[in-house]
Sequence to fold (169 residues):
Amino acid sequence: MKMSDSLSLGEVVAADGGRVLRLEGTPSVVKIHGYEVEGQYSVIEHTLMPGVLVPPHVHEGYEHLTLVLRGEVGFRVATSDGTARQGDYVLMPRGVPHALWNGTEEPVTYAHVTTPGGFEGYFIEMAEMFKGDRPDPERLRALAARYTSRYVPEQVAEIEARYGVRAAT
Fold:
């Protein structure tokens, strides 16, 4: 996919296209930047490695629609836990705590469609932070706050113990 100001009508984003990001436990690819679609949404594919928990967090300014592309992913939205398999969708509304984890032996791939667009910047900036030493947790919290997000640390230990996974950051 070319990096342009906008996508053309009917433009194909190739399966192997996009901007690759190196994130701890969740290698990711930005497939569609918000600026390419006038800020309406963004699409990022994440690969969640076995045993990894994306820690519980809340987005005040963004909603995710998660589509499982390969494998099986555990999730918590508010206080409900569940499992989504290939082809399943999970809605993660703004203002509601949510988490994802891979309790299987195989990598899981899922796509986040986020509205409005712009949240992909969070992952891009986080990938930059992880290029050197492990970033300071305070820097990660400040980054999340810039994207109207916050972590919910009080749920981490319980999810880790219940599902045998470990938080990515």
